[in-house]
Design brief:
There is one protein chain. With 150 residues, this protein is an all-alpha fold. The chain has one domain (3-118). It is 58% helix and 0% strand. The chain is built from eight helices and no strands. The radius of gyration is 50 Å and the shape is elongated. The N and C termini lie far apart (156 Å). The mean pLDDT is 78. InterPro entries: AROS. It holds the Pfam family AROS. This is Active regulator of SIRT1. Residues 118-129 have a biased composition (Basic and acidic residues).
Amino acid sequence: MSISVIRRGLELLSNDIKDGGKSQKKSCQKTTLMDQISSNKQGVRKQIRQLQAHSQARKSKVTVKNKNVKNALEEYRKKQKKSQLSANLEYFLGTSYVTQEHHTKKIQQQNTGRLSRHQPEQPVRKPAQEKSIFTEEEFQKFQKEYFANL
């Protein structure tokens, strides 16, 4: 070993001997709960509870060591339900069964809302022309008879 390394080691050792090892003991030694409480007689129990709560909070602190921090968007997308629309469309378009029209109209009618604004407009029916019991010839005959007497 070189002389400079030995001198450096002796200097460090002499510093420890002068301090008497007090600096290490203070840093390593934890203060007890009773040393932290004030000498006042009032509020001792409250101080004890507070100090115990602080010490427990420090112990239960969770660290992020060895934990992968993930992107929030990726987590959100994973938790979202995936759309099954394309799979459902493939299934329904792949079947050869065709429902009858009156069944589909029934289903559509049941799914419409109950408010009047949600109801589909009913097709306007043209009033059917009334058919007469009498024929055109009978009308002509009646007209001649009626106006001839006037």
